Write the structure tokens for this entry.
Amino acid sequence: MSNADALVPDRSCGTCTLCCKVMGVRELNKPAGTWCTHCDPRRGCGIYETRPSGCREFFCTWRIEASIPEWFRPLTSKLVLAVEQQGRRLAIHVDPGTPQAWRQEPYYRQLKVWAQEAVATNRQVIVRLGKRMIAVLPDCDVDVGVVGEDETVVTAARQTPSGLAYTAYRAKVADLLGGGT
Ligand code: SF4
Ligand code: SF4
């Protein structure tokens, strides 16, 4: 979440409405991965003046961070980047109509670079297809399946004779309280 004051000057949404499809909107009980019933993909939001605060405040990371490559433009990449979990997670929300988009180049190569940086700073890179999540890790990708409202994704590393090996799994948030990821 951010606001219009912090946007990259030379980037605009244009005709893109992809976040109205891939993102969930709690106020509308709209699930992730399905078009909002108020969205006309050609004309935009049908309730623009009264849209929920979650919609008002949201801009994808491509619009906020100049360091995100131009070629991540959601309209063409079919990927909507968002920083979640208080900055600990970079989420890549994938258009369900092109579920393999994140595996294409140059995107996948960049996700692996971010994954390597993330593990060094206790952060995550997570591909999201609706409620299904896939952890992108330096040495593998782990499909943890559908993550419930009371669950989160834990990533971990263990030392092996050939170096660090990474994994990821779903866990109940309540079970992690007082623990750590
Ligand atoms: S995904 Fe990004 S570029 Fe597309 S409409 Fe949403 S905020 Fe704008
Ligand atoms: S209310 Fe409007 S801005 Fe929010 S998801 Fe629906 S169409 Fe998009």
